[in-house]
Amino acid sequence: MLGNCFTNVRKSSPLVHNITNYVTVNDVANAILATGASPIMSDEPKDVEDITSICGALNINIGTLNERSIKAMHIAAKKASSLGHVLVLDPVGAGASALRTDTAAALLDEVPFTLVRGNASELKALSMGSHTTKGVDADEADAVSEENLDKMVSFVKEFAKAAGCVVAMTGAIDLVADERTCYVIRNGRKEMSRITGTGCQLSGISAAFEAANPGNALEAAAAAVCTMGLAGEIAFSRMQPGDGNSTYRNRIIDAIYNMDAKTLDEGAKYEIR
Amino acid sequence: MLGNCFTNVRKSSPLVHNITNYVTVNDVANAILATGASPIMSDEPKDVEDITSICGALNINIGTLNERSIKAMHIAAKKASSLGHVLVLDPVGAGASALRTDTAAALLDEVPFTLVRGNASELKALSMGSHTTKGVDADEADAVSEENLDKMVSFVKEFAKAAGCVVAMTGAIDLVADERTCYVIRNGRKEMSRITGTGCQLSGISAAFEAANPGNALEAAAAAVCTMGLAGEIAFSRMQPGDGNSTYRNRIIDAIYNMDAKTLDEGAKYEIR
Amino acid sequence: MLGNCFTNVRKSSPLVHNITNYVTVNDVANAILATGASPIMSDEPKDVEDITSICGALNINIGTLNERSIKAMHIAAKKASSLGHVLVLDPVGAGASALRTDTAAALLDEVPFTLVRGNASELKALSMGSHTTKGVDADEADAVSEENLDKMVSFVKEFAKAAGCVVAMTGAIDLVADERTCYVIRNGRKEMSRITGTGCQLSGISAAFEAANPGNALEAAAAAVCTMGLAGEIAFSRMQPGDGNSTYRNRIIDAIYNMDAKTLDEGAKYEIR
Fold this sequence. Notes:
3 copies of one chain form a homotrimer.
Chain A: H1 2-12, E1 15-19, H2 25-35, E2 38-41, H3 45-53, E3 57-61, H4 67-82, E4 86-90, H5 98-110, E5 115-118, H6 120-128, H7 149-163, E6 166-169, E7 174-177, E8 182-185, H8 198-212, H9 217-237, H10 245-257, H11 261-267, E9 270-272
Parallel strand pairs in A: 1-2, 1-3, 3-4, 4-5, 5-6
Antiparallel strand pairs in A: 6-7, 7-8, 8-9
Helix pairs in contact in A: 1-8, 1-9, 1-11, 2-8, 2-10, 3-4, 8-9, 9-10
């Protein structure tokens, strides 16, 4: 049950090392804290080996990457991998620039990740080397819909097989898959896309879910995705007239903070394909 | 009409590349999303040409600049200029350090900007090479008042003429001018100065307004300034006992999110000189 | 009286130069603004001498340090020291990595600080060269409790004597001491530890309190610690069902914004040992 995965985060309170962009880093930290886990951030090559060694998971997010942080990503990834830690990759903007596509691809080549979480455009860019991403948001032409669902489920499973890890492709419909099984998740609200960083937050909390649920990577990722989407629904139900995307941002993190296993199990909307 | 400029942002949803400081970057992103546009951040020299190419506007904010980001500013500015994109400069702290004054001046020399937005002290420093700025806030001695209004309108028009672009000098009274025409805007509240980054947010959304209103740079800038000020007024009217600058920050972005052309046209308080 | 120290911040509105981590920097800026002081951030070696020269205090926080920012910390510290400015050190994650422990130790060796503020694990690491910190949070084994209070008061006084400055060790019980006198402070709530950056905010506002209260470093630090803890209590009393750590974060800064001398004097809970 997904609720179990959530309870394990609360119980084990894993420490997550994040190398992540400076746009949404504060929300990533508070979202991780809201799950009951703890975040630590470090992107200096001389600092990351020590920091990642005391953690249980490494979350690499390539938004606002730079030469120094890319170096730190590789050093930290190798160290975390050698220690058997959870590794999560968020390929922000893959497809939007050669540097981003290449950095994400190089990391995937170098170490075995536990989970890759991105939007449809980013994952397609990584899969096909294409460059059609509209910045850090998914191109509408790439979006998962009821019409192309079968095709997209197959794509995500194939990506997972090729990458040798769980893949979460998030958007209006979220697909979380390994090579055999795909969770098709219909939680969340479209208004979440008008907040910066809900994807980054999801990657951060996913790392906590993975660390707290060893040997159960697929279900842990599905639980993280449902938690984020359900938090978006709960938060939206609390919106008052005059509230907008900034208040919505706060209420989503609040809803993660107040989440529990029962609420998650009752509110998770998914089918397995 | 200013409301029209706002509607154009909502309709065209421009993508804005921001090279901006890490203090207020999250609020800049959420403010841009609140207008209906989309932000992307990148400050790595090897990344910015690709990123700026897929955007319609480049917003350069020199707060927390460093050697790497300065290099990225120049590369991105040249690329954006060669593509005919909108360019906005926010000279945060010009006058407070030689590096900031020189960086802003060098960028202004190098490429034609669409809009420069700063406070009175920053613009005076750029104009005169003086170093009297009180950090990132305007020096009181520099502020626009009813007493010195004529003189300041002339100063802003002259600055606009010399820089060959629209200039927005914001403070208690906002002046938005090209070499011939000046909007004197009396929206906003003094409490906005107790929030970090309302100026940075304004520069970010101004880039979206400019991108969505080609050939109409002056009115677009005035619309952005009125939107921010009016959002500050609407947000303040929603404040409850015990609320302070952090909640006020959220409510201002919320108010941009809920803005529409009619509200803006009815609430904009300006005269043209 | 502590309330007096607070009033002095409101009256003198000091400008605080912060070299601080990008995780919590926005909250640090808004917390400083909430006290009535003003923040400026700069971490470029070529920028920091000019910036720190126009300020009254320098707050160095080593979270997300990198080679460039470390260089900037040393340059800024020497300049601020030569000008007789207040210097505050927040050794975030000291003990968690060699780079962080060494950087904090080197800064302490190099210039006389006014105040060092950290959690028990960080201060123990600095004192003993140990590496037992659980990331950026205090290890439970290190926490101040009623049982080990006498021992911890002695430890903090000895640290203060060795460092030649005021030391604030914050946690469930806060200890603020010079070599002779220790404030034992029981303000605050445990839920504050589920927000990222309350410690960073405290270091930032402490720099403002120190700058506004020259020659009164111990009382100024105690006033800052009580202000933060009391703001945490006031903010918690305003929490509604469904609110969580993100809203709590906003309400704490709001409570600092609405603080006054009388509220602080009535709400401060401390004894002197």
